[in-house]
Amino acid sequence: MTSRYRARPIEETALQQLRVRDDAGRDCVPCTDGEGGAPLRCCLRTSEAGERIALVSYAPLRRWAARTGADPGAYDEQGPVFIHAGDCGGPAGDGGYPFARAGVRRTARRYDARGHILGGRVLDLGEDPDGEIERALDDAFAEPDVALVHLRFAEFGCFQFEVRRP
After folding, report:
1. Tens-place pLDDT, residues 61-102
2. Among 30, 86, 137, 142, which is least packed, fewest CB within 10 Å?
3. What DSSP designation does 21 have?
């Protein structure tokens, strides 16, 4: 499926910083992934066994607000994400939505230009996970005040990827 929206990984400047110190102020502690399957937010794919990765705390709204001048206030939050421990070259860009598997729940959280939550939607990804994500994004961006949408894993609330208004 070719998507109308671009799933955005964590930006390279942020990755360079996170590989030293995360958004909670902790030193990055890389490890070798023994099993594989960790959802990597740097390249938007799952890790393979033997890759060097790190679990870091990431504040996507805070970093977006710093670039745009927004003030998310209490909506600023941080949470755990996996990244490669070193440069990986970013996403390969296959056109679909990363980490979209049938039977997995997601949330699509909508934000305005200030970084305030405008609402959200729980997605039960069925037989057409990419299509369900696409429809949720269509609905979100049909609202004129929505500036960006964060897709999150419903089970843990972890940031998955960001989509900005086209």
Report:
1. 999 999 999 999 999 999 999 999 999 999 986 667 898 876
2. 142
3. B
Rounded to an integer, what distance in angstroms lies between the CA atom of residue 62 and that of residue 43?
21
How confident is the model at residue 159, as a pLDDT? 94
Q: Residue 84 is inside which H or E element, if any?
A: strand 79-84
Q: How far apart are CA 60 and CA 79, in angstroms?
A: 9
Could you tell me the two tokens for 19?
A: 């590989």
Residues in the chain: 166
DSSP state of 86: S
What are the backbone dihedrals phi and psi of residue 13, each rounded to the nearest 5 degrees, phi first? -60, -45
d(CA 121, CA 102): 17
Q: Cα-flanking dihedrals φ and ψ of residue 119, to 5°?
A: 140, -175
Q: How distant, in Å, are the alpha carbons of 9, 36, 57, 96, 121 from that of 135?
A: 20, 30, 29, 13, 11
CA atoms within 13 A on the CB side of 119: 9
Helix (H, G, I), strand (E, B), or coil: what is residue 137?
Answer: helix
Give the residue carrying structure tokens 């390249």. Answer: 43
Average pLDDT over residues 33-39: 96
Task: Assess whether pLDDT exceeds 60 at residue 1.
Answer: no
d(CA 98, CA 74): 28
Q: Quote the tokens at residue 77.
A: 């939050």
